[in-house]
Amino acid sequence: MLLKMGFEQISLISIISHLVFIAITWWALQALNLEYFIRKGRVVEARLLLILLTIVIASTVSNFFLDYLLWSQQIP
């Protein structure tokens, strides 16, 4: 499937995959109680850390998903 698609379609699937996994990761990280690890008065830094952590985790999972999808298409 992916091997027969053009670059535009693969790019669109990659963008959608990354955005979906960012949303899922953000939702999942909201369950954590990070107040224990954050100093008082550092709300902006805590939010930035949460956003960066979300992007790192979601990007890793999305890349794994896309690689797995590509590899499964290469099996004869």
Automatic annotation (TrEMBL):
<protein>
    <submittedName>
        <fullName>DUF1146 family protein</fullName>
    </submittedName>
</protein>
<feature type="transmembrane region" description="Helical">
    <location>
        <begin position="12"/>
        <end position="29"/>
    </location>
</feature>
<keyword id="KW-0472">Membrane</keyword>
<dbReference type="InterPro" id="IPR009526">
    <property type="entry name" value="DUF1146"/>
</dbReference>
<keyword id="KW-0812">Transmembrane</keyword>
<dbReference type="Pfam" id="PF06612">
    <property type="entry name" value="DUF1146"/>
</dbReference>
<feature type="transmembrane region" description="Helical">
    <location>
        <begin position="49"/>
        <end position="71"/>
    </location>
</feature>
<keyword id="KW-1133">Transmembrane helix</keyword>
